[in-house]
Predict the structure.
Amino acid sequence: MYSLRRFNEPRFQRLDAIIDSLNEHLTTYIQLVGSATLPLPEVCAMASLPASAVRVEGHLQERYFPASEPVDLAERIIEDETRRIFSIGNEYQISAQPHSATQANHAVFRSILGERTGKVAALSPTDGGHYSFSAGVPPPHEFVPLPISAAGLDYDEVADAVRQSEPTIIVAGGSAYSRAIDFAQLRVAADQVGAHLHADLAHCAPFVAAGLHPPAFGHVDSAAIDPSKNLRGAGGGILVFRDRDAEAMREAIFPILQGSPGQLGLLAKAACMTAWSVDDLSRYAKRMMEVAQLLAEQISTLLGEPQYGGTDSHLLLYDVSDCCENGRIAEDRLRESRILVNRNQIPNDLKPPWEASGIRLSSTVPTILGYADTDVVALGEAICTVLTGSDDQSGVVDDLLARFHHPLSAVT
Ligand SMILES: Cc1ncc(COP(=O)(O)O)c(C=O)c1O
């Protein structure tokens, strides 16, 4: 699927070692970490071009260096294709420039929080949010956790909490929240106090684009999209914002948070967003959800229902404290059996993040690799057996690895 180009000179030995190590990673592990993907081959091909030959600072049509046409074209393509995939209307503008989803979020924090102390309300990292939601709020502004329970978001409770805390910004999205988010309900909550509603679509982008989750655009004021999660891109963010906030958002990205936009990253984003048809994205999103639900059926025999009452996405979050003491031990056991998941806190977790009470899994990579239902069932059963330590599962893991997890193919 991916090509292998050797350097074959003594001074590049360590680079060849990286390639070997990557190859080994791809063929040794069943990768189920929540944010993991396999980039599209088109993305890797575009990212290998010498685009940093073109010097760029500033926004489209306001460049600080001459002759930026190739990068201008890449930015325009990302904007057009993002609009196409997500059906984004003309009331929004798009910046292809952020280096990451975190930076896109922070551009929103910086441009919307005013002079007076404001508040950002979001899921805390303990409750399924991303670390940058709380850590990224610039002082003297404050972070306010949104209420959530193991049953998921209760929008009436969220609306009450918003009325009480009066945040300036509400962030909709998370790293471990497996359910669909109702952006229209959050809009109603935000409007009670005139808050800016920002969607972090890092994980749920394909489901929103496919219409499997409720629509975001039309309800939110801004959104961060991360092609490197389950859109099969490389690293980098895309920020969507309303016309009225455009000047502040663009200024927050450049020159406040970054200089040049990362030319290789722009080519990779252009390839990623161009490669998806809405039909392909819908099929992929639907299958990711099916695989996650099938995996959940198997794992539930050992761990019960996933947190938040199930999944409408690629994500599953489980409390493992009954079988493994903590998430770290579960992660280690699975890694020894060549299955990668990450330890993760669960709602109201009393354990610190490096131990945590839970594990988070994603169906993205098995979906991309074309696991059939029987393979997903075998994987789910193997996970349960490994977690209880009752039997060796190397036969099942070897079989899945041999049939689906292929090495880089050599090019001459
Ligand atoms: C919801 C969410 N937002 C942002 C990020 C960070 O993305 P990036 O690595 O592009 O900064 C993550 C990482 O997994 C995430 O889960």
Observations:
- The chain has two domains: 11-34+279-410, 46-275.
- The first strand starts at residue 3 and ends at 4.
- The pocket of pyridoxal-5'-phosphate is lined by residues 35, 100-102, 130, 132, 173-175, 200, 202-203, 226, 237 (CB under 6 Å).
- The CA atoms of residues 155 and 186 lie 7 Å apart.
